[in-house]
Give the backbone structure.
Amino acid sequence: MTLDQVKVGEHGIIASVGGEGALRRRLLDMGLTPRTRVMVRKVAPMGDPIELNLRGYELTIRLEDAQKIEVTEERA
Amino acid sequence: MIIALLGNPNSGKTTLFNQLTGSKQHVGNFPGVTVEKKEGAIRGQRNLTLVDLPGIYSLSPYTAEEVVTRDFLLVEKPEAVINIVDATNIERNLYLTLQLMEVGVPVVVALNMMDEVRANGDSIDVQKLSRNLGIPIVPISAAKNEGCDELVQRTIEVAHQKERPRGLDLCQGEVHRAVHSIAHIIEEELKATGLPARYAATKVVEGDPITLSKLNLSESQQGIVQKIVTEMEHNLGTDREAALADMRYDFIAKACKDAVKKNGNSREMQRSIRIDNVLTNKYLGIPIFLAVMLLVFYLTFNVIGQPLSDLLSTGIDWVTGLLDRALTNTGINEAVHSLLVDGVCMGVGSVLSFLPTIVTLFFFLSILEDSGYMARVAFVMDKLLRKIGLSGRSFVPMLIGFGCSVPAIMATRTLASQRDRRMTILLTPFMSCSAKLPIYATFTAAFFPDKAPLVLILLYAGGMVVGILYGLLLKSTLFRGNPVPFVMELPAYRMPSAKSVLIHMWEKAKDFLVKAFTIIFVASIVIWVLQSFDSRLMMVEDGSRSMLAGIGRFIAPIFKPLGFGEWIPATALLTGLSAKEAVVSTLAVLTNVSDVSLLPSVLADTFTPLAAASFLTFTLLYMPCFAAVAAVKRELGGAKYAVAAMAAQCAVAWIVACLVYQIGRLFIGG
């Protein structure tokens, strides 16, 4: 499944980061690397973008970019 | 000696810069780009210049900010780099530090916000972390001015001893093997470029286009490099870019493991989450944002800024009157008298009276920015601006454009990418500024007295629609290609520091004053000369015989298809360039009306209602006043860009007004 499908308040573990060029590099630079644990904090009032929590800070990305990030569900 | 200051956005970089240099700062742009470069002398030190580099997260080759920073490090070779790191968000902040270590410049880490770390009951073993990373670290709190002296001392030591990061192997396993193999292959080419060996090899593994083109490798070398990289990718099961990012974060995790103790979310973070429950709330987020902006506008233009502006213009009028009487008494030449009073005092004076409004506006804006709220605005409003290829961050400058284009254009400085800054600067003047209101009021009173609100709404909405269309046009022409990705940090809310806010206000005030006394000063004199003399350089009594009126007559035919191809409106549009309000007063003077309130009745003789609609459309859209042009020139970084932008805007205005008039004629006839 992809990161945009993770429900608000739930976690996912990044499996791979797709996309290309500046966008992909930016995602990786901001710490969205494989094996990183990410929580979806909230969705913006107009339904897009979303707010994530990872590596102890808050990051916002657009849904179309979140679709490029493969995650695995975290088993509780 | 040159010391560079580098760090992530929101790491307290500006606060530290202000602490180290005080208010003696020089602000400019890096050559050829719209990226701000700030310099200042470090206090209490001789010959120590601190250069504030843009706030960035990485040295990737994609944004203007990152490329400028790289070039500065590699070409200007600062004696030392102070890398400010937010201790409360250490993992991600150290990512840039690692890339600095790859470059191999002498670097000192300023570990900021240590007070917050302590207050949270967390701890960072600075010595251990310094050993693990192989670079000196000084714990500081920039906001409380703690540790700044030690930081400067340590930086000077590092610079004198040229203390480079200890050559710890950042990379392990597969990446390590690839970097070393490639280092051997590119040895010869490397000498010609003067790039640091380790850095270049890492960048080649990463596939960095800038480094690759500098090295100019032969085909066989490229083949070998490709083979090494493919093998590494195969063995790691991932691609080159992800492999390097992963490697850096792995190294950071190891370096922090025994040095950083953290118990869950910090208090600042918990507080931010609670604040955001309200401010970015699904239902409240947008209304709160609009309320905040309304309040800022109300306070700026009604409560604080406007009265101060009025006071200042009363003062300027008083000085002008004094000068006027003094000059009359000395019986000085009439032309000189008029130049000083009508040209210089009126021109610069009318612009100067904007100053309090601008300073007040930036007082509020820097509070919104420094507190962390602007990032939330971008989060909440992003979806609206995405269609024209911008992000939510551009929303605030455009909104300010409805007040005054000058501060709006100046406010684009806080946008994170050069592309967004440039595009926002080009779109902002389409938001109808408040100085155009007198024109609208006069014309609606003359031609559409029963439909005044409708006309106003149509004008404001029309400006926005044209702005959106212009944005779409720019997106598919000049700004083609991928926009800078909207991957943005939402920093924890923090109390803005009074010092930073004051310095920011002073910076903007200085900026504006420089403009007022250079470009605007010259423009006022030019307009005055054109208005007061005829072509034989004799002073004219009757405005219709001035050179300006002559130019008005000359360009009037251009406006024929727009329905107002007469010299009077053309001349009024020309004087509107010094300030938009001048359009109304010029129309009054040229039609020999003694009082502006009588103007509407006279205008009906010059314009048909349809021509009036077309004239309003043109004034709405054509180039902004000289003060705004000066701001555009400053922020776009060159007169030629400003001239092109203005020409384009006038063309847009002409086309739209022409459409209004010609299509209108089809319906009404006439």
